[in-house]
Design a protein that fits this description.
The complex is a heterodimer of chains A (111) and B (114). Chain A is an all-beta fold and 111 residues long. Chain A has strands at residues 4-6, 11-14, 19-25, 32-38, 45-51, 54-58, 61-66, 71-76, 85-92, 99-101, 105-110. Chain B is 0% helix and 55% strand. The chains are: A mainly beta (111), B mainly beta (114).
Chain lengths: 111, 114
């Protein structure tokens, strides 16, 4: 079983839609859950992270963790064409900073 | 806003040649990383580096790879004898003490091995 799984999409939504992006993971030791955004041919950009379970909100973005189901989500409200990118979930599995990434979900928000 | 920089943006090399990829991490960061992303695949961890030592490395990071912090600002990745399968985007990242998982990535170096 892969450590971190993410549906690659692609996902296409109209501007203003609510977007839901998801990852599942297998390692119950994961405590931090990161979301990165990656534009084409650019480096990953840290969007937000959560520790343990629960929700965290930052502007139009909400990160949610369900440790009992080993499932994390990123919600984007009022999506904009500028949100079009690949969204990567990532989790650190060791104490030395190694991040394990999901495959990434390609999102397109069309006007 | 401070950012991680990487040079060159694109490197083309022949199989068997040595390449050095360079990174300038964010100035107050103490933890440094290299990741790679083969086209269409996941971002993969290569190595983490702290206090002038490798903290952790993946199975990808074999004897052909090495890292160095030659001075107070640069962090380099050397591939001694490149193979075709080394063609990928290489990303450098850095983080601060106490928040090592909040890693800030550079724009990447696209390495093409012919």
């Amino acid at each position: 079983q892969k450590e971190v799984e993410q549906d690659p999409g692609p996902l296409s939504v109209p501007e203003g839609a609510i977007v839901s992006l998801n990852c599942t993971y297998s390692n119950s030791a994961f405590q931090y859950f990161m979301w990165y955004r990656q534009y084409s041919r650019k480096g990953p950009e840290l969007l937000m992270y959560t520790y343990s379970s629960g929700n965290k909100e930052d502007g139009r973005f909400t990160a949610q963790v369900d440790k009992s189901s080993k499932y994390i989500s990123l919600f984007i409200r009022d999506s904009q064409p500028s949100d079009s990118a690949t969204y990567l979930c990532a989790m650190p599995g060791t104490s030395y900073g190694k991040l394990t990434f999901g495959q990434g979900t390609i999102l397109t928000v069309h006007p | 806003e401070p950012e991680v920089t990487q040079t060159p943006s694109h490197q083309v090399t022949q199989m068997g040649q040595e390449v050095i990829l360079r990174c300038v991490p964010i100035s107050n960061h103490l933890y440094f990383y290299w990741y790679r992303q083969i086209l269409g695949q996941k971002v993969e961890f290569l190595v983490s580096f702290y206090n002038n030592e490798i903290s952790e490395k993946s199975e990808i990071f074999d004897d052909q790879f090495s890292v160095e912090r030659p001075d107070g600002s640069n962090f380099t990745l050397k591939i001694r004898s490149t193979k075709l399968e080394d063609s990928a985007m290489y990303f450098c990242a850095s983080s601060v003490r106490g928040r090592i998982y909040e890693q800030y990535f550079g724009p990447g170096t696209r390495l093409t091995v012919t």
